[in-house]
Amino acid sequence: RDRVSYVETISALLGSDPLVTVHPAQTISTLQGMAADEVELELMIVGRGRRFIFVDEESEAAFNATLIAQSPIDYGLLDAVYEVMAESFRLWDSDERTLSAVHHLDEGQILASDEDDVRAVEAYSRSIELDEGLVPAYLGRGACYHRLEQLDDAHTDLDRAVEIEPENGLARYSRAQFHWRTNEPEAALVDVDAAIALQGERLEYLILRSLIHADLGAFDAALADVERAMETEAGDAAPEIETCRAFAHLLAEEYAVALDEYNAVLDQDFHTFDALFGAGIALAKMGAADESQALLVEAFEQYYEEELDQPSPYVAALVLMAQEQLDAIDAVE
Predict the structure, then answer these.
(1) DSSP characters for 125-183?
(2) Could you give the 3-state DSSP secondary structure of residue 69?
(3) What are phi and psi of 117, to 5 degrees?
(4) Average pLDDT over the chain, rounded to whole?
């Protein structure tokens, strides 16, 4: 019945454990403009936590969700998952649903996930008509425009998202991705640097910056980002990060080092086409034509199975180098 009292009671209950430090609740706003509360937790044994609390005083109901990270290496993932959860919270009045910008935002996201970008653009546009300040709608429509190769429209939407919320790290990261994929690495670097300054060294941000640095020939900076990514995230993501490190060595023409890195990834049964491409290119550069050819053929088979409509500059560079090496091998044969 009373949101403030409920949050105070929950906070006191959590704080009754001597191993838990509870920070004062912060009021936040959901995408639907409803007030909710966030409580930060410090746990002496298992790390850090964040609790999302929404109280509906009218229906006398409450929604609680708590996420815990047991190690500092997982804090970035904790924050990313929490933000998705909090942003996706909805409370609908069925009679007003279709009049809500957030409803059409959700429709756009569903259509985009089904690869129906044309109808997704229509849904996002309806959302923007109802709320011209809804940044996720601009980001979603911009991504659809990009896939539809309407690059000017995509750029306009991403610029508008950053203009509305210049402190939005995701908006800066999204625009960095766009600049990188449209062969503007310097502009991409400015935006990904801003995203990291705003939201910290998240895995996806560090990997993107590493690839941009490698694209610009700043190999030491690329490798430094990879090392930070390894410190930030371990476990299942490790092979992907190691592949980025190998790519930096490959572009720096350190072929033996790159091959060792790629082989370490392949030994983990992480047989993605980019790891196979990289290992094959390194072998070709070192004169091992037969071994190189076998890996490159396997890599191309995987690559064509993926049917990528818009390969990133990273993938495009690997494909180009791999094709050059295969052509050279065929010419010798």
Answers:
(1) HHHHHH-TT-HHHHHHHHHHHHHTT-HHHHHHHHHHHHHH-TT-HHHHHHHHHHHHHTT
(2) strand
(3) -70, -30
(4) 90
